[in-house]
Amino acid sequence: MPRRFTYNIVVPVTPTPVGMVALLLAGRISFMKLKTFSEKKGNDWKMVYLARCEGTDTATITWKIDLQGTGLVADRMDIQALSTCYENGCIWWRICADEQCAVLPSDGRLTSVDNVSGSSVITISATLSQGQGNVSWQHTQLFRQSAQDVSNPFDVQIFLKSVKN
Question: Which residues contact 101 (CB under 8 A, 6 or more apart)?
Answer without folding.
Answer: 94, 95
